[in-house]
Amino acid sequence: QVQLVESGGGSVQAGGSLRLSCVASGYPGRFYYMAWFRQVPGKEREGVAAIGSNGRTIYAGSVEGRFTISQDNALNTLWLQMNSLKPEDTARYYCAAPAQDFWIKYALDGGRYNYWGQGTQVTVSS
């Protein structure tokens, strides 16, 4: 059974930083991508950042320049470094991975992903 487990969420003041982690297990082989999504109750899920096994990255425009996605060489641990946090970044953040390959232009589309973590809450106060 594939498991993705997030950690690192919490409460922080605007302008602060958090580092989220996701550890994957139970997957035979390498994921084509790993990605972060976030969701606020009543709003659609939003792709935040994704990284391919080749190291290419894609970011949502709302976080580009503030967030950095990275992964280890074994491609089973994912991080999201979040700097200059804003109240609008408040959401539950989910780690995700797909079972198939696709063009990186689609890597922020949650419908492309098969495996999801339980999420970790990030709350940014003003």
List keywords for this structure.
48% strand; mainly beta; seven-stranded mixed β-sheet; globular; four-stranded antiparallel β-sheet; 11 strands; 126 residues
Helical residues, percent: under 10%
Give the termini separation: 40 Å
How would a textbook summarize the main sheet?
Answer: 7 strands, mixed
Give the uncertain stretches in residue-range form. Answer: none
Number of helices: 0
**What is the chain-wise order of helices and strands?**
EEEEEEEEEEE
What's the count of strands?
11
Shape: globular
**From the helix content, strand content and strand pairing, which structural class follows?**
mainly beta
How much β-strand is present in the residues? Answer: over 45%
Mean residue pLDDT: 96
Return Rg in Å: 14 Å
Descriptive account of the structure:
This protein is an all-beta fold and 126 residues long. The protein has strands spanning 3-7, 10-13, 18-25, 33-39, 46-52, 57-59, 67-71, 77-82, 91-97, 115-116, 120-125. The protein is globular, with a radius of gyration of 14 Å.
Quick overview of this protein structure:
The protein is mainly beta. The model has no long low-confidence stretch (mean pLDDT 96).
Describe the secondary structure blueprint for this structure.
Elements: E1 3-7, E2 10-13, E3 18-25, E4 33-39, E5 46-52, E6 57-59, E7 67-71, E8 77-82, E9 91-97, E10 115-116, E11 120-125
Parallel strand pairs: 2-11
Antiparallel strand pairs: 1-3, 3-8, 4-5, 4-9, 5-6, 7-8, 9-10, 9-11
